[in-house]
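Weekly structure sync, notes
Attendees: PL (lead), two postdocs, one rotation student
Agenda item 3: pending single-chain targets
PL asked that the sequence for the first pending target be pasted directly into the notes so everyone works from the same version. It is reproduced below exactly as submitted, 209 residues in total.
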Amino acid sequence: MTVVAEQFGGPSGALGHVITRLLARGNGSFNRWLVRELATVTPAPTTVIEIGSGPGVALHELSSTYPEARIVGVDPSDVVQKSARRRNAAAIATGRLTLVLGDLGSAAMHQPADLVLAVHVIYFWPDPAKELRRIHDALVPGGRVALGYQLRTNMPKPAQRNFPKSGFRLYDSDDQIDALLREAGFAAQEVRIFGTPERPGGRLSIAIA
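Predicted structure, written out during the meeting:
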């Protein structure tokens, strides 16, 4: 099962295509909700970058929500980018959406951004404080970072068991996320919950650079 867990950190090969479909189906509602929530606090960004954009569900929602913005999706997996390219063919064709293979540094030419989001990605960062500092540097003053995540206790049991075995980091409280954000120079964290506090389908942390 650790082989499957590792695929969530970067889908590859034949199994990666299966994981990509699971990501699109399992996280789709959360991604769409998250973008709608962001629109209430960041109504008209010029540039939006999604790190770990995966199969492109949030990118599709971002393109619809922010029709005047330049959207950039960054992911190290060419497998998920093929899925994102199909899902967002129209926005790519018009030049409104750009896909970049790699990490945030690979999208340097598109920075600074008004909004950077990373959904279900923070578990896979070996040094999350360092990654958040890079995001902070990639934002305009007053720009926002949006982290989508799930706390350990609300994750499926296989993920709770196997993610740590693969070297991934799980979080037990929003305070742990807040501490990382503050260490990276962010302020004014706000947490929103998808679903109910008793049965959360995910969490959204928004902080200001």
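Discussion points:
- Residues 5 and 163 are 6 Å apart (CA to CA).
- The longest helix spans residues 13-39.
Action: rotation student to compare against the earlier draft before next sync.
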